Amino acid sequence: MDYLKDIIEKLKDKKNVFLTGGAGVGKTTITRAVIKFYEDEAKKVAKLASTGMAATLIGGQTLHSFLDLGIAGDLKELEQKGKFEISKKVKKLIFSMDLIVIDEISMVSDALLDMISLRLQQADFKGSLLVVGDFLQLPPVVRGYAEVRFAFESISWEKFLFEIVELTHIYRTDDKDFIELLARIRDGFVDEEVHNTLNEFIKPLPQNLSEFTFLFGKNNSASLHNKNQLEFVDKELHVKEAQVIKHLKSAKELEIERFMDDARIEKELELKVGVRVLFTRNSWNYFNGERGVVVNIDSSFVYVQKSDGMIVKLEAVAQSKSVWSEKSVNGKKEMVEESLFSVYQYPIRLAYAITIHKSQGMSIEDLIIETNEIFAPSQFYVAISRSSNPKRLNLIAPRKQWRDIVFVNQKALIFVKKRGVTPTKM
């Protein structure tokens, strides 16, 4: 089936679409293709997500920023903070959009979806809405011990009348047994067979840990492991500082810092010849999550040798944050997207450790997962589904039972089954 053509036809018919499927099925690739189609047709597209990191994966911005929601968590707070009424600028901005894309919909709460719905109604939005994600992956972030409530629990979800398009073919690996295991883990299903299969991935740690990427649940653990491994490399330290160019005077330092953190951009990238790195972006000659070894560093370039022997000459590349402004185009006022600032940094990071949250969108061949830092529903599924080569997958022996690690939010599971959005099909 031509999923791209199907989605575009639905959107052009002014239908709203929910694009879903498990990890590694190509949701981001399809989403980018839809965006490109619209932009090639000179259509206006808003590329949004609830978190900055998710937004940067599709070159967009956060929902709160685009919709002018401030720091409100729900409609009540929106009113309390004086943001309930829509401004003329935001109204015109939303109305001008032909397509609004919301990525990682699983991380959007019911309250946030209600605020999104409010803004679209206030602006009399006439375009189409494409929401993308998997409710059996990372859930919305909640304050304290508040109950997790998903977008599909909102009355607004029903009002959007989403047509479901489910991707089913996993591209990250072609190991059929592993694909079946992933389907069960995504479902939160642990029987004796799953238990025994997971135990088979518990192996003695390799002598050369530098060949593997650790996935941790905590930032501190990942940072400490990277620092320790860097010290083992007895070469000169090179520090590549990120370069920031402000295109508009309204760009603020705090905003830039948050963007860099969300976009996985190192403020000071510490490198040595011989260190192992992960590529953090896709290009024609490398992909997001691919490993390599730094073989040379000079003032302008970093040279990385991949496992296939190819040496990639890297220069600092830009990641930009944009804003929409009203401009005069050919004598006519239009909403125009323009860059607020750009951050230039090399598209790599140390490969020794990364958090599960920041591994989003990556395919990693040589992988070790610290199972004892799994604390959230579907977190283990997100971690293990990063693996592109199960033969190079190691699990740290858990101190808990597998059923206490392989778990999902039951509301999400019921929704997925009830609505015909099934765990990844073989």
Give a verbal description of the structure.
By secondary structure, the protein is of the alpha/beta class. The chain is 30% helix and 23% strand. It is built from 14 helices and 20 strands. The strands form five sheets. Strands 3-2-4-5-1-6 form a six-stranded parallel sheet. A hairpin with a 2-residue loop joins strand 15 and strand 16. Helix 1 (3-12) crosses helix 2. It starts with a helix and ends in an 8-residue tail after the last helix. 43% of the residues are buried. The model is unreliable at 422-426 (pLDDT under 50).
How are the secondary structure elements laid out?
Blueprint: H1 3-12, E1 17-20, H2 27-40, E2 45-49, H3 52-57, E3 61-62, H4 63-66, H5 75-80, H6 88-95, E4 99-103, H7 110-122, E5 128-132, H8 155-160, E6 163-166, H9 176-186, H10 192-200, E7 213-216, H11 219-232, E8 238-241, E9 243-246, H12 253-262, E10 268-271, E11 276-279, E12 291-297, E13 302-306, E14 311-314, E15 317-329, E16 332-345, E17 348-350, E18 353-355, E19 367-369, H13 379-384, E20 393-395, H14 410-418
Parallel strand pairs: 1-5, 1-6, 2-3, 2-4, 4-5, 7-18, 7-19, 19-20
Antiparallel strand pairs: 8-10, 9-16, 11-12, 11-17, 12-13, 13-14, 15-16
